[in-house]
Amino acid sequence: MAGRLIGLGVGPGDPELLTLKALRLLRASPVIGYFVAKAKHHAGQGGNAFAIIEQHLLAEQQRLPLVYPVTTEKLEPPLTYEGVISDFYDTAAAQVAAHLDVGRDVAVICEGDPFFYGSYMYLHDRLSDRYDTEVVPGVCSMLGSAAVLGVPLVYRNQSLSVLSGVLPEDELKRRLADADAAVVMKLGRNFDKVRRVLRELGRDGGAHYVERATMREQRIVALDDVDPMASPYFSMIVIPGQRWNG
User: Fold this and answer.
1) 52 and 77 both lie in a single domain
2) pTM
3) Cα separations (Å) of 240 from 7, 89, 122, 152?
4) Distance CA 246, CA 244 (A)
5) pLDDT tens digit string along 123-152?
6) Residue 66 shares a structural domain with residue 128
7) Which has the closest alpha carbon to 196: 221, 217, 165?
8) Percentage helix, strand, coil for the chain under 3-state DSSP, each rounded to 5
């Protein structure tokens, strides 16, 4: 009988935000898969998600690193990021399937929630039609960010927009102009563009910036004080909805 594939959301960074169900399934799985950048893997590190759960692993559990061939570096033509990363997910799915085929359950951990910008979902798309699968939700970075900032996201009938900082500037401006409340993710090198749009819309005064929310390295910085060249991937801008004093 084939093993079971488990997508485990392990939360945004604080180990205490790991759910009881995720912890139970983590401890019961003979193989633990985790995504890790090539540089961190070569340095003997396990990545952010692995750091959250490492203290709970047993010696007999097999570690299965799924090593990204690229992250943010530029590629020389004819290589493209989309092509390289798609091939990587094909390879990672085959690595996981090799364990499933011999009857071993595999828990693939994912920072935040597996289905909210989570790397696990690309394995899920490739494997869920062939193997028994379970997905355990986790606290996503958007909610962790709102909590550490101390700002409610949406009141009553307001709508929340989740936007990627990678969007073209005109499209980002259009969507933010129409949003009751918004979170902008995937900042990094896109930060300066996002801040410029917020200033043009007059929404910068109500925007909050946080890096690595709930992690030990967490930083909350005024939007005007952020160095656009130093904004990390794990950063976010939160624009809460207008307060309602009900």
Assistant:
1) yes
2) 0.93
3) 30, 35, 30, 6
4) 6
5) 999 999 999 999 999 999 999 999 999 999
6) yes
7) 165
8) 40, 20, 40
- Beta bridge partner(s), residue 237: 184, 209
Name the strand (E) or helix (H) holding 134.
strand 133-136
CA distances (Å), origin 127, targets 10, 66, 170, 195: 21, 15, 37, 39
Expressed as residue numbers, the domain containing 86 is: 5-139
For 125, counting Cβ atoms within 10 Å of its Cβ (0-12 exposed, 13-18 middle, 19+ buried), the class is exposed
Structure tokens at 33: 């898969």
pLDDT average, residue stretch 236-245:
95
Question: Where residue 75 falls among pLDDT bands split at 50, 70, 90?
Answer: low
Q: Indicate if the pLDDT at residue 180 is higher than 70.
A: yes
Q: Which of 106, 139, 172 is the last residue of a domain?
A: 139
88 and 179 share one domain: no
Give the integer Cα–Cα distance in Å for 89 and 94.
8
Q: What integer is the mean pLDDT of 37-48? A: 90
